[in-house]
Amino acid sequence: MSITTLSTINEQLLKSIGVGIAIVRFSDLHFYYHNKAFAEWFGDPASSDVVTEIVDRLREDARTALQDTGRFTTEVQVKPKRRTLVIALTANLAEFEGESVVVVECQNITRMRELEQMIESYSNMVERNTRELEREKERVEKLLLNLMPRSVYEEFKTFGVVTPQLYRNVSVLMLDFVGFTSFAENTDPTVTLGELNDMFTAFDRISEQFGCERIKTIGDAYLAVSGMPEPAPDHASAVANCAVRFIRYLERRNQSHQHKWQARIGLATGTAVGSVVGVQKYVYDVFGPAVNMAARLQVFAQPMKIVAPVDMKFDLIDAFRVTEIGSYDIKGLGQVELVNVEGNLTLAN
Amino acid sequence: MAHLGYDGMAGTTFEKYGGFGIVSKVVMTFYEMVLDSDIVGHHFDHVDMPRLIDHQTKFISSLMGGPASISDERLRAVHAHFDITDAEFDEIVSLLGMALEEHRMDADDIDALARAIDAKRSLIVKRAVA
Predict the structure, then answer these.
(1) CB nearest A114 (choices: B23, B36, B49)
(2) Domain CATH number, residue B110
(3) Could you tell me if residue B72 is inside a domain?
(4) A124 found inside a domain
(5) Hey, which end of chain B has fewer CB within 10 Å, N or C?
(6) Is A74 helix (H, G, I), strand (E, B) or coil?
(7) Residue ranges of the alpha helices (H) in chain A?
(8) Residues from B in contact with A at Cβ < 8 Å
(9) pTM for this structure?
């Protein structure tokens, strides 16, 4: 192959290659040569405003970089048609026949930038979606936490089922309103519901504050426990604290409300089983001797009184006024020694 | 099935054709077609690349049932000042059909998507009289 043929091939290659090439004199930035790709993107350097604008903009930075390192790189955007092109420029300083020239190489990286932009756009969407799902999950979690204690929920979430657990040392509080049925019969149901909602919400706050967990309400009855599912050494005083404050709350409320509510409260200590009942409609519920006893004693209690078995006496005696009221025959339980529990003078308001 | 709102990805064209993979291909093809079009291209003369890509990625994703949704209100608002004609709207639907076809989507699915877009015509096309 002759030298002439080789240089013809080189020339053809420079013309047809997908890379834009230009050769510029370093001293005055006169364009010696440019290929087809270069002209397609920027226009003919002799007449193109685009080239003039880019040269003017980059001149100082390029000159400094070329003098210091012999190399200058940057990215420029051009819009020969509607599509914005992103061109990566690399300029290298070279010596040719005793003169400094700059060889400019231009790569079209438009597609890469477009893809990057699309990925960014897409990942923003996915992230926003993920955040929405997260929020939705939190809403569901919050709802389920209203139906069962957190530790039970964690078990349910991990295993899909909840194993019934026997708790040996729990205390139970059962509250019921006096004369609720007749009130409900003679009152607009929305008013009844409003009254219950108001009082139960207050009870929930008190329960939470004193380490009790409300398990459920059944009509006008309110059932709370302490010592399950998390063990609590002071479960007896926890329920007593709630009971005393429930009564006090009602007394205060009665001073300013039209209907004067009176409640009976039964307390008990002992064993109970806790579990989620149901498959589709999950309800966390408790069963067992302590629950039965609290329910029976609540029925036995005088209005606005708290009744507990005598075995709770020593757990409560330091913080409450505990009065023995004797032995009574309680339905289903036989003879039980009972006490009344009241708040004592050291109780904080 | 056609989707113009996000309601979970299960059973959508988005899932059927491979999620983001197909979205990215369709967006790239559609983007070029739209810019090259003599009928609608001029609407994009002054829209910069990142914005247009963002817009189309959301459009194609939501259309196929991917993780995006564009409300009717938004559709109406973003197109309001373009004075879009029925002919231009048809051109976009036709270009999209071609882009989807190029990436081997079934004719039935393309028809379903075209119908879904057509249902939004009144939000996008500017009418001389209401």
Answers:
(1) B49
(2) 1.10.490.10
(3) yes
(4) no
(5) C
(6) strand
(7) 3-16, 36-42, 49-69, 110-147, 150-159, 180-186, 189-209, 235-256, 289-300, 313-316
(8) 6, 20, 23-24, 27-28, 31-32, 35-36, 41, 44-45, 48-50, 53-54, 57-58, 61, 66-68
(9) 0.61
Q: Are residues A235 and A330 in the same domain?
A: yes
Of residues B124, B127, B92, B108, the one with CA closest to residue B2 = B108
Domain count, chain A: 2
Same domain, yes or no: A257 and A336 = yes
Chain B contacts in chain A segment 116-175 (CB below 8 A): 117-119, 121-122, 125-126, 129
Could you report the per-residue pLDDT of A327-343, keeping only the tens digit for each? 999 888 899 999 999 98
Cβ–Cβ of A121/B54 closer than 8 Å?
yes
- Specify if B98 maps to a domain: yes
Query: A43 lies in which domain range?
Result: 3-108
Task: Look up the ipTM and state it.
Answer: 0.77
From B44, which residue of chain A is nearest by alpha-carbon distance? Answer: A82
Closest chain B C-alpha to A81 CA, distance in angstroms: 9
User: Does the residue A176 lie in any domain?
Assistant: yes
A175 in the same domain as A83: no
Same domain? For A168 and A100 the reply is no
Closest CB to B68: pick one of A82, A111, A125.
A125
CB pair distance less than 8 Å for A114 and B28: yes
Task: Establish whether the linkage from the previous residue to A80 is cis, with ω within 30° of 0.
Answer: no
Owner of token pair 């209005």? A303
CA A66 to mean position of chain CA atoms: 54
Read off the CATH number of the domain in which A103 is found.
3.30.450.20
Pairing of strands A306-309, A263-277: parallel
Query: Which residue did the predictor score with more confidence, B76 or A239?
Result: A239
Using a CB-CB cut-off of 8 Å, the residues of chain B touching A84 are 48-49
A44-53, B15-24, B30-39, B95-104: range with lowest mean pLDDT: B15-24
Rounded Cα gap, residues A53 and A68, in angstroms = 24
pLDDT for residue B2 is more than 80: no
Q: How far is B112 from chain A (nearest CA, A)?
A: 23
> To the nearest whole angstrom, how far is the Cα of B36 from the nearest Cα of chain A?
7
Q: How many domains is chain B partitioned into structurally?
A: 1
Min Cα distance A14 → chain B (Å) is 27
A142 occurs within a structural domain: no
- The single-letter code of the amino acid at A172 is V
Which DSSP state fits A110? Answer: H
- Tell me which residue range forms the domain holding B78: 19-124
Residue B12 lies in a domain: no
Cis peptide bond upstream of A45, omega within 30: no
Interface touch A122/B48, C-beta < 8 Å: no
How far A117 CA lies from chain B's nearest CA (Å)?
6
